[in-house]
Amino acid sequence: MRIYSPVGFSRVSLEGPFWRERLDTVLARTVPSQHRQLERHGILHSLTIPQPVPPLTIPRNHHNFTMQIFWDSDVGKWIEAASYALSHRRDGIIEAQIDEITELLAKAQLPDGYLNCWYIGREPENRWTNLRDNHELYCAGHMLEGAIAYFEATGRRRLLDIMQRYVDHIDAMFGPREDQKQGYCGHQEIEIALLKLYRVTKNRRYLDLAAYFIDERGKNPHYFDAEAIARGDDPKKFWAKTYQYNQSHMPVRQQDKVVGHAVRAMYMYTAMAELAVELDDASLRRACEVLWRDVTGRRIYLTGGLGPAATNEGFTEDYDLPNDTAYAETCASVALIFWAQRMLHLDLDGKYADILELALFNNALCGLSRDGQHYFYENPLESDGRHSRWEWHVCPCCTMNASRLIASVGGYFCSESKDAVALHLYGGISTTVEVAGRKVKIKEESNYPWSGAVRISVDPDSPGEFALKLRIPGWAKRATASVNGVAVELAAVRNGYLDIRRVWGKGDTVVLDLPMAPERVYAHPLVRMDVGRVALRRGPLVYCLEEADNPGHRMQQLRLPRASDLRSVTRTDLFDGVVTIVANGKALATADWEDELYRNESPRESTVSLTALPYYLWSNRTKGSMTVWIAEE
Amino acid sequence: MRIYSPVGFSRVSLEGPFWRERLDTVLARTVPSQHRQLERHGILHSLTIPQPVPPLTIPRNHHNFTMQIFWDSDVGKWIEAASYALSHRRDGIIEAQIDEITELLAKAQLPDGYLNCWYIGREPENRWTNLRDNHELYCAGHMLEGAIAYFEATGRRRLLDIMQRYVDHIDAMFGPREDQKQGYCGHQEIEIALLKLYRVTKNRRYLDLAAYFIDERGKNPHYFDAEAIARGDDPKKFWAKTYQYNQSHMPVRQQDKVVGHAVRAMYMYTAMAELAVELDDASLRRACEVLWRDVTGRRIYLTGGLGPAATNEGFTEDYDLPNDTAYAETCASVALIFWAQRMLHLDLDGKYADILELALFNNALCGLSRDGQHYFYENPLESDGRHSRWEWHVCPCCTMNASRLIASVGGYFCSESKDAVALHLYGGISTTVEVAGRKVKIKEESNYPWSGAVRISVDPDSPGEFALKLRIPGWAKRATASVNGVAVELAAVRNGYLDIRRVWGKGDTVVLDLPMAPERVYAHPLVRMDVGRVALRRGPLVYCLEEADNPGHRMQQLRLPRASDLRSVTRTDLFDGVVTIVANGKALATADWEDELYRNESPRESTVSLTALPYYLWSNRTKGSMTVWIAEE
């Protein structure tokens, strides 16, 4: 049963400097440049049916897999991001670009509604024969999300109509009847899209189809076995070796370990949590809670990154969190934010918002450069200087996940219920919510995440009683709050939210102070890579040592004594103003080593000043080494 | 110009307990079990020509490469190891097995002398068309080494004759003439074998051919380019992307960085160093010295392991020495021992013997289990418990490198020259050398590597003046020596050798004391993985913490305070007696963490006793975590 609903980003005006800069960059630079990249790399061109002869072909990888097969999804994600941009400000050029794509899709769509440009253009006879590997439903899901976003931004429904016809085709194709396929996608995603379509159309069929895909997953006999045999393949030769890879190794309600490909996992849990809300499904909710505990207690990086291994783009063992080889794909953190938001609506608990904020401000934001046109796919927590941002990627999934997240970030700030409004994030927003039968203007002002001083004006169109629930972040120690100058007892914080229930009237003001002292963080001793190391955090931001701020050293040579004070230093000369953390440290000297590689004397040390930068900002200047976890002594 | 020659293993009797146990294990268990494995995996069967229909086929990897292509080399290496075993004690069964293989090869050999069972059996039309990838000369080299060893052990020359015919075919095929190929093998090895054949036959042609292969390498236009074009391939599509992979990126004399596939590099440097001796080639010698300084100063693990990366089975960047993902292939360390021995004959300098000893007692010995029938291919310096020994490997190169090394280890102990005998290693041997026109019996008694107390009896058949050069290891501090009870001035140590020149007569005795205190070792600060960590060493042995000796902890949770005393503790209950290193340490507690993964308080510590075991012995008991580099506090 749904108690809270998110306040959509189109109702939230971002006014604080931090998010304003990110949003402006995405609107002005990222979205237009991504269209150019889609064009340059032939991705838009691939929507033309019939395909040119010879067709544009990118090389297959060593599993005989071509990433071209999910190009539809990249286009769909760009439409989604671009449409979110349009919600902020309309743009004739972008709209013409989306309309042009729409016409290509209209032309490509088969009479029965089927619409996947790879299959239609290359191997129409093979559609729906390899759900395990070929991302067919995944592509449909992303294009559907794009269509919904464009409809919501502009009111134009031609693309939505096209995609709804395709979804109706899919709905006829999959289901429990004997003439239907009892299948589901190897890469979860369509479930999230179907739930959005349900929200827009209120048509229950789409909710049911999302639930069907989730419920069917992992049943025996296994669909991917049967499907492989049907196309003449040996199911045992599945390259990933285990159905854990796509979380179909058992029915979802029995799953209690976060395994396999990280993005697939997070998309699935997102859909599961939303279905648990919509259907008031206790067993689905319980599974989500168990999986949440598993990932946050044993399998997440300090930066909100997920998945240590490149081989499966995903999870390995408990506490296996290598720093320099961390995969920690941008997409996975974006998807974790989706999941966390759904969990928050299942149960308004700050533990979900804490992770949402962590993933947002660190791993996810790190995925997009300061200039809005360079990206990280992997987000390691340590680099010897070889890792840096790229302009585009053979698998561009992360690029549009970054842009669609930032273009809609306002949607993660507030939720509303019948008699309460909850603020999860801070950073300068205004919105109008419906609560207790009233329209209530909320204005939140702050210089978050640089400062925890937050001022909230509450302005109902008439006085009335309701609850204002303010998240007190898990990292915030000694927080204080006052309403109209009168202190509020912080003991009232329950599950991470300060619950202020009263009769609110025009001009009421809440002041919240979340002191942001730089602090040390230590990892569980079973995280073997981090033993003897310390990380720095201030508010929601995780920090790192980067060579650009500490020239003349490899960052791994620097050590931070346990007794050193940590100081916040505002630097207006860096990135339009950031707060750095400065401390006295030690640098291991290399000069006296000459050609020696090992010796009996420990390295000599010199005293240095260490400057730590928010992690999400690294690799925006010169190439160099970086570390989040610093040797402590 | 050759001054020193090694005293061959067949002239050296191993009498000390350490090497006696290893040698007995290899003779009694390893060599016979390797024959069974070669049989079980179809490797011996593949020598039968014509091949059965359908032929035995193992899967190709994602570069479309089958390891089956170098099965001839595995057979050759087994013959070599088995023949070394026969030199210690004749064995009718083994000899019958080698004779059987000989007959298969005789039958397979083509009229022109060509003899590669893969090509003859599968694609005779393609021979000599892909030297870059297909190990054709490499296979010839290993089989030739096997043939020479069998001839030397038994006097039977049928296999040697077969191989010599093949080498004569190769000699006709490759060379500077227009009707010859100006090629060389992608995997260096045959050069070493040809130099052995030169030693046995004294036929200068084989020396010249080895020199030709070395000199031709890396010339432009590049042979592997031309060869690829000739067979219709695009040279740019070389899977390894760079000819650094096989050290043909430039002429060998210009090479000053140790790059690419580690085993190929080491085999090549071995041949280069031996050619430099034989030909008195100053430029080749200089290249060897530069490469030696590069590898030992920046690119070698503390254990003597080489090559951090699995992708190229080789080298990456300076100081890039990750512990848990270290490749450090057993073969590479074995080959480093070959190279170090050749360097020692180029210049009797203890720095070469130090590395020889290091690689031997640590990385190389680690490759073979205590029971003689399990192996390591990779030798990481840290494991979370997932790495353990295997019974066999799809690429069994390391297995026979371990057995052929140990079965001939006596050959690394001494060298002789006209007027000197040098001892490089200790461990209980006796031998008779020719020096100063006399036969001199040398008996070295010790419990090395557990104790550094060494007693050497010198017994010439008549008194005479010559030098006894005793290696004083780089690790040995405060060494003392005496001759017939009279102390020798250790200031006389030059380049790592104590040079005792005198008139030696019957009953002369040298006593050497190399005190073995456990000691701490630190890595160069640019080895980022080892910052804040310490390793333990005693004598030639590097130690590790293994879970079997420190139960209840992951080894990465353990810390060694800088102030803790290190104690040598002899344990007769472990592996027939070993010396462990024991120290007071700290264990990071996990009990108070519950579901937390990160927190502000540093982990609590409890005091524990740490027991470190020689690295080469790890993974011979239960599975568990291990680390060489220990967090220091």
Q: Count all strands of chain A and give the number.
A: 24
Largest interface: A-B, 54 and 54 residues
Question: Quick check: average pLDDT of chain A?
Answer: 96
Computed over alpha carbons, the radius of gyration of chain A is 25 Å
Low-confidence stretches of chain A: none
N-C termini distance of chain A: 51 Å
Oligomer: homodimer
Largest sheet of chain A: 7 strands, antiparallel
How many individual helices of chain A? 14
Report the principal-axis shape of chain A.
globular
Per DSSP, what share of the residues of chain A sits in E-state strands of 2 or more residues? Answer: 15-25%
Helix content percent band of chain A? 25-40%
Task: Give an account of the 3D structure.
The structure is a homodimer of 633-residue chains. Chain A has 633 residues and is of the alpha+beta class. In chain A, 34% of the residues lie in helices and 19% in strands. Chain A is built from 14 helices and 24 strands. The first copy, chain A, has a seven-stranded antiparallel sheet with strand order 2-6-7-8-14-10-11. A six-stranded mixed sheet of chain A has the order 1-4-5-9-13-12, with no helix packed on it. In chain A, strand 12 and strand 13 form a beta hairpin. In chain A, helix 1 (17-40) runs antiparallel to helix 14 and helix 5 runs parallel beside helix 7. Chain A is globular. Chain A starts with a strand and ends with a strand. The relative contact order of chain A is 0.10. Chains A and B meet through helix 11, strand 15, strand 16 and strand 21 of A and helix 11, strand 15, strand 16 and strand 21 of B.
